[in-house]
Amino acid sequence: MAIALVTGGSRGIGRATALQLAQEGYTVALNFHHNIRAATEVVNSIAAAGGKAFALRADISDESQVVAMFESIDREGEQLTALVNNAGILFEQSTVENLTAERINRVLATNVTGYFLCCREAVKRMSFKHGGQGGSIVNVSSAASRLGAPFEYVDYAASKGAVDTLTTGLALEVAAQGIRVNCVRPGLIYTEMHASGSEPGRVDRVKSMLPMQRGGQPEEVAQAITWLLSEKASYVTGSFLELAGGK
Question: What angle separates helix 114-126 from helix 154-174, to the nearest 10 degrees?
Answer without folding.
Answer: 20
